[in-house]
Amino acid sequence: MKKIVLTGACGALGSKLREPLSKLADELLSTDIAEAPAKLLENESFVQADLADLAAIEALMQGAEMVVHFGAIPDERSFEELLGPNYIGAYTVWEAAHRAGARRVVYASSVHAVGLQETMAGHDTDVPHRPDSFYGLSKCFAEDMAKMFWEKRGLEAVCLRIMSCTPEPQNARALHTWLSHGDLVRLVEASVTTPVTGFTVAWGVSANSRASVSNHKIPFLGYHPRDNAEDWADRLLPASKTPDPSDRAQRSLGGPFAVVPLGESGVAAIKRMSAQD
Predict the structure, then answer these.
(1) Which residues are known catalytic residues?
(2) Per the record, which residues fall in region Disordered (predicted)?
C-alpha cells in the first residue's frame, strides 16, 4: 500500500502497531493528540492533531488507502469528556477517510459495546449492542456509523471488539477475555491485508480455551490467534476468590464496567479486582 494512517499512535495499543503497520505500506502517517514519539520509523511521519478537528484530520488523510483508528479516551468518563475524542472524533475519521478516497477503516471498538451481555451465552460476532457505559455507547455509535458508511458510501470497515489486551492475563476473568499483544498485531494485520471485508465485526481475543466469544462466522478475515490465557490458569485461579454468581460483574462480558456508575472509571475497577485476585 502507499499510505496507512494510524490514529492514537502514542497510546498503549497504538504504539504496538506502529512498526508492524510500517511494513505494510510505503508511508505510515501516525497521529495523536500527544507529542510525537522520541524516534520515528524510517518511513513514518507524525502529525499532532485533535481528532475532533475535521480540517486537521482531513489534511493528514490525503492519499491514505487504509486507516487504523485507535485514537480515543480508553475508559469510562462523563459523556461530555468523551464527546470530542470518542464520538465526534469517530465521525471526523470516517468523514475524512471518505473524502480522501480511503478503502477501509480498521477500528478499535470494544467489548464494552456489548458489555451487559451475559458472559456464559457463547456470543458470536452478531451479538447486538448492549453497552455498559458512555464509553461503550461511543463504540456502538462508531460501529453503527461504520456500517452506514459502508452501506451508503462503500467505505469498508473492520470493527475490532477488543477485550482485555495486556502483556499477560491479569486476573481470572482474563482467562476468557485476554488478547495478547502479539495477537493484537496479528488481528490488525489480517484486518488490513484481507482483500475484501465490507463491514465486519471481529472479536479481539486470543485463542483462549475458555473464550466466551467466537469469531467462527468470519474465517475470511484470516485471523489466527496463537496465544492462550490458559497457560496462566494455574497461577491465576488459586489466587482468586470464590466467585459470586449473583455478581453482575462476574456474569457480564464487560466485567466491572457493567456495575460501576455511569461516568466512573471502569479501568480503575478492573485494577482493584486484579489486586484483590
Answers:
(1) 135
(2) 237-257
Q: Of 65, 66, 76, 34, which is closest to residue 51 (Cα–Cα)? A: 34
Question: Structural domain boundaries of the chain?
Answer: 3-276
Q: What is the pTM of this model?
A: 0.95
Supply φ then ψ for residue 157, to 5 degrees: -150, 140
Cα-based distances in Å from 186 to 59, 157, 244? 29, 17, 35
Classify domain 3-276 by CATH number.
3.40.50.720
